[in-house]
Amino acid sequence: MGCDWANEMIGMAPAAAQAASPKIAVQHLEFAYPGARGGTIMALAGLNLAVPDGQFCCIVGPSGCGKSTLLRLLAGLEQPTRGNIAVRHDNPALPVNSMVFQGDSTFPWLTVRENVAYGLAQRHVPAALRVARVATFLDMVGLRSFSDAYPGQLSGGMRQRVSLARALANDPEILLMDEPFASLDEQNRLLLQLELLRIWETERKTVVFVTHSIDEALLLGDRVLLMSARPGRLLLDELVAFPRPRDPYTLKREAAFGDMAYRIWELLRREVNRARDIEMQGVA
Ligand SMILES: Nc1ncnc2c1ncn2[C@@H]1O[C@H](COP(=O)(O)OP(=O)(O)OP(=O)(O)O)[C@@H](O)[C@H]1O
Ligand SMILES: [Mg+2]
Question: What is the pTM of this model?
Answer without folding.
Answer: 0.92
